[in-house]
Design a protein that fits this description.
The protein is α+β, with helices and mostly antiparallel strands and about 160 residues long. The chain contains six helices and six strands; from the N terminus they run H-H-H-E-E-E-H-E-E-E-H-H. The chain has helices at about 5-15, 20-35, 40-50, 95-100, 120-125, 130-145; strands at about 60-65, 70-75, 80-85, 100-105, 110, 115-120. The strands form two sheets. A three-stranded antiparallel beta sheet has the order 1-2-3. The chain has a three-stranded antiparallel beta sheet with strand order 4-5-6.
């Protein structure tokens, strides 16, 4: 017999509608961790996170020194890459510091502890590499570089 509703939709609606259900899932995950079933516990927690914060999340991230980019593997299977030189908190940083990246449990954030820098994954997906004022400054710098007589950041004139 075919199901008429998507299980994830039903699950998400129940988590949002019943805080006690969400709390029971957290309690169950804690019990699973204590009994050594960490893989199952993590899946319960991921399902809970998906219910309250749907959308792609970071699964892995690393600094690629040759390209000077941060590469982020998303739960959707997409790999996101962005240039360090255009990113608030990372521009001009030492490669060793850029290589030390932490992913928040829910995969919604990236953190560079040595730089005290944080980026929000949903913002990165939308192309936001910093605060509004940072993005405005970067846009102005790029416009200046591309103006007549300026040099394109990729080396073209």
């Amino acid at each position: 017999m075919a199901l008429t509703r998507d299980f994830r939709l039903t699950f998400a609606e129940r988590v949002q509608r019943e805080p006690e259900f969400a709390q029971a899932l957290l309690d169950e995950a804690a019990t699973l961790f204590r009994t050594g079933e960490s893989d199952v516990a993590l899946q319960v927690l991921r399902d809970l996170v998906d219910a309250v914060a749907p959308g792609p999340r970071a699964l892995a991230a690393h600094y690629d020194a040759p390209s000077e980019r941060i590469l982020v593997q998303l739960s959707s299977g997409v790999e996101l890459a962005f240039p360090v030189r255009l990113t608030e908190g990372l521009a001009g940083a030492d490669p060793e510091d850029l290589s030390d990246i932490e992913i928040s449990f829910a995969g919604q954030g990236l953190h560079w502890p040595k730089l005290d820098a944080d980026l929000y994954v949903p913002g990165l997906i939308r192309g936001h590499l910093g605060t509004r004022s940072w993005m405005q400054r970067i846009a102005a710098e790029l416009d200046t570089l591309k103006s007549p007589g300026g040099k394109d950041p990729d080396g073209a004139t």
